[in-house]
Amino acid sequence: MGEGIVTEGLNHAGGVSMWDLFWQAGLIVKLVMIGLVVASVWTWAIIIDKVMRYAAMRRQLNNFENQFWSGRSLEELYQTLVDRKPTGMGAVFVAAMREWKKSFEKGARSPIGLQQRIEKAMDVTLAREMDHLESRLGFLATIGSAAPFVGLFGTVIGIMTSFQAIAGSQQTSLAVVAPGIAEALLATAIGLVAAIPAVIAYNKLTADAGKIGMRMESFADEFSSILSRQIDERQSVRNAA
């Protein structure tokens, strides 16, 4: 008799889909599941957007480096980029050149002050570009750390509800216990489905953003050295005159 009840309960549980488990769940567990599903969808939207943006940024960096080292004059390259609202290295270059031109137009006399202003302009632009690159990555970190606990919260609530149903029915057969436990565990499963891609993507995208940032920082340092030499040359000509 007992084996028949257990077998019947297992067959019943095996025929229940996840959609059925969702509709059978309590209100709180449903809200937890819906929230996790929405977070998972938004997580994948961010991942796809960032992958595409980082790929485009790498192409832009390669293209700018080819133009910069092609032998074109700095003034010509600046005039080409200034009206395009460039990003990445282009934005750093334009910021430095804009400060360079403004300082000489106003008759800057101190080469040290000019060098400091150019470096400050590049640092500010570089920080702005990094903020743009790393935007919304914090959401991935939050989902990766919080989603399992949110799912666990739904599981705890579901198990509590199942125990209350067992107490109310005064039966302990698998047919009574299994559906409630399955509903509860579904919340944890959805939490893990949301968290695992978020953690992996956060680590990967953070590393990619760091590599892009290092390339821009290296260019800023190198371009600062180039401008420093030109400042010294102009100062030498001015002193000789």
TrEMBL record:
Main location: membrane
Cellular component GO terms, alphabetical: plasma membrane
GO process annotations (BP): bacteriocin transport; cell division; protein import
Keywords attached to this entry: Cell cycle, Cell division, Cell inner membrane, Cell membrane, Membrane, Transmembrane, Transmembrane helix
Pfam families the record matches: MotA_ExbB
Membrane topology according to the record: Multi-pass membrane protein
Segments forming domain MotA/TolQ/ExbB proton channel: 113-217
Location of the protein in the cell: Cell inner membrane; Cell membrane
Transmembrane annotation, as ranges: 27-48, 137-160, 180-202
Keyword Lyase: no
Family the UniProt entry places it in: Belongs to the ExbB/TolQ family.
Function as written in the Swiss-Prot or TrEMBL entry: Part of the Tol-Pal system, which plays a role in outer membrane invagination during cell division and is important for maintaining outer membrane integrity.
Assembly and oligomerization: The Tol-Pal system is composed of five core proteins: the inner membrane proteins TolA, TolQ and TolR, the periplasmic protein TolB and the outer membrane protein Pal. They form a network linking the inner and outer membranes and the peptidoglycan layer.
Protein name per Swiss-Prot or TrEMBL: Tol-Pal system protein TolQ
Organism: Fulvimarina pelagi HTCC2506
Gene name as annotated: tolQ
